[in-house]
Amino acid sequence: MDYRPEVINKLSEIYSGSHGTFLKNSPEIFNRHRETAYKEFLRLGIPDRKNEAYKYTNLEKSFGYPYQVYYSPVPQDFREAEKFHCEVEDLDVWNMVLLNGFFPRGEEGLVMLPGGIWVGSMKAAAKQFPGLVEKHYNKYVQGENDGLVPLNTAMASDGLFLYAPKNTAYTKPIQIVNLLHSDQDIFAQDRNLVVVEDRAQLSLLVCDHAISPQHFLTNTVTEVYVGQNSRFEIIRVQNQHNNSGKITHTFIHQERDSYASSNNITLHGGLVRNATWHMLNGENSETHSYGLYLADKQQHIANFVKVDHAAPNCNSTQLFKGVLDENSSGAFNGRIMVHKIAQGTNAYQSNNNILLSDAARMDTKPQLEIYADDVKCSHGATVGQLDNNALFYLRSRGIDAREAKLMLMFGFAHDVIKNIPIEALRERIDNLVQKRLRGELSRCASCAIQCN
Prior knowledge:
Blueprint: H1 4-25, H2 28-44, E1 68-70, H3 79-83, E2 94-99, E3 111-112, E4 118-121, H4 122-128, H5 130-136, H6 148-155, E5 160-164, E6 174-180, E7 186-196, E8 201-210, E9 216-226, E10 231-239, E11 244-254, E12 259-268, E13 271-280, E14 286-295, E15 300-309, E16 315-324, E17 329-338, E18 345-355, E19 361-370, E20 375-384, H7 388-396, H8 401-417, H9 423-438
Parallel strand pairs: 1-7, 2-6, 5-7, 6-8, 7-9, 8-10, 9-11, 10-12, 11-13, 12-14, 13-15, 14-16, 15-17, 16-18, 17-19, 18-20
Antiparallel strand pairs: 3-4, 4-5
């Protein structure tokens, strides 16, 4: 039986029943796109495995729970969020906590950080910077026949807004902690916008945690604009429990001489799918996309990456690595598109995976689509086991079998971790990865969930 009509009908009832609430409580710029996006969602539906981008990812189980849609928090919801603290020592960042996609401050206003960078909720941004939000909101999404993107546009109520005006730079990374907490199974959708104007710099660290054991499904859309001669970095650390489903869509649009990087570190989660689109729209722009995923039990982790070289003399890198154990599964779908105008392109793509059990499964699909003739492009993918020769070498040096395997796996994973520019976070992720590979529960100190 196809589960999608039932789920779509349920979502349609929620959308229709909450339509007045959406219109009343949301800025006009959001509401203007809702009806068109909703019709597009009905046309596309929830992606199934006939959709090439979801060929190896089955969403049926994640959409099968009786979720309550979370679109209007009340003050007491934030009590648990107020107790949360980040356990990474010496992490010199500016920190803000979101609960189920909402800020505790709500629409009260934005915060201006040292250096002139603004951070706060999308609702507050639509009031304080209406022209800016109008200019960028819903401008960079690429549906790729993915109905979950217009579903977010139709139903998201709030999210993160970050704005770095021209010539601004905040020397500390901005840390956003996304907490999921409820006494019900919930479906949360947040909509984020990051604007980094010309000659500005911004680093964003996003940490995803679930702090109650209910079933959660999150559908997140993030749009990022990186202006000329600007620099933007986003690091996403995902450490949720096995009852959580996390689906992210990140669209990074770059102009001339800009630099951007994204790094998705997935330590834990029932179902995780990260989709990242990089649009190199200006000459001499550069982008790097990294990913590390560790999976066991019945977990499924998927990464979809598309890099569009739409301008000459641009550089891009994709490096994704995974370690899969027990009955877990993973998927990688990476694309490099080089348009005819994009002469002088330099693009590299690599996906490497280690399977620790006969039941673990990895599907990988690297792709190149090139229409220019003056390019340097390469791609490759491997799925295998630990190197027996390397294991023999370590054993011959007196290292026992278990430690030798752990050393090889950690060295394999560190190729991605070393690209994290924040030293304290890099060291902390090294520590978490080592614990994860050892089978220890590497959860935050404030989380009492046991992921059995």
